[in-house]
Amino acid sequence: MACFYEAGERLQREIQTLLQREQLLPAELREPLQEVVNSVDKPLLPFPLLRKLYDFLQESGSPVYLHELLEGSRVYLPKVEIPPRNPELVARLEKIKAKLANDEYRRITRNVNCQELNRYGSLADFGRQVKSVKALGITIFNFIVTVAAAFVCTYLGSQYYFTEIAARVLSSVIVASVVGLAELYVLVRTMEGELGELQ
Asked: How does the protein's chain sit in the membrane according to the entry (predicted)?
């Protein structure tokens, strides 16, 4: 905090003039002002001493105003010395920073899976895809075999009822269509159930 004025030329001249007339200056002002003038470094004047000097000048009837007296002077701001940091505190702060960085890294990479570094997926994904394609292939094969078997059985069984081939083929197509629709209904219900379980 600033508590000194660095005396400018005007203030130094005024102090020199007052010190030359010793009979006018009281002893309580003379000694501190003499120390200020005799200082080797910058002449620093404390605020209370400056206030006493200004009061004395006003009482003695001097026509000098404060702003004229302080012309060329400036507030002396001492260098702020920063105390050394506590090593325990520094170590603790470093641990906290490292922990926060690790938490941030984990948060950013929580949805990254090392198994899926390949853009086409891992072998486990490939196995699941093959399994679903295999199941679909088996289902289609089963549908075709069932419809074909219904057609063949109806065609062969209808020879006892119909003598004409057109009537036998027509009855076989009708039965195969009914079996195919029934098979599709069961397939759709099964897939619908599987999708319901997934959701």
From this structure: Multi-pass membrane protein
Q: Which phi and psi (to 5°) does residue 5 adopt? A: -110, 135
Amino acid at position 153, single letter: C
- Determine the Cα–Cα distance for residues 109 and 101; give it in Å rounded to an integer: 12
Specify the length of the chain in residues: 199
| Strand boundaries in the chain, DSSP class E | 4-6, 44-46, 74-76
Strand order, beta sheet including 4-6: 44-46, 4-6, 74-76
Q: Determine the 3-state secondary structure of 58 from DSSP.
A: helix
**What residue has token string 């105390």?**
83
> Total domain count for the chain?
2
Residues 88 and 157 occupy one common structural domain: no
Final residue of a structural domain among 58, 77, 111: 111
* Beta carbons within 8 Å of 143's beta carbon, 6+ residues apart: 180, 183, 184, 187
**What's the distance, CA 46 to chain centroid?**
50
- pTM higher than 0.85, yes or no? no
For 142-164, what is each residue's pLDDT tens digit?
A: 999 999 999 999 999 998 888 89
Q: 61: phi > 0 → left, psi -120 to 50 → alpha, else beta; which?
A: left
Q: Which domain holds residue 67?
A: 1-111
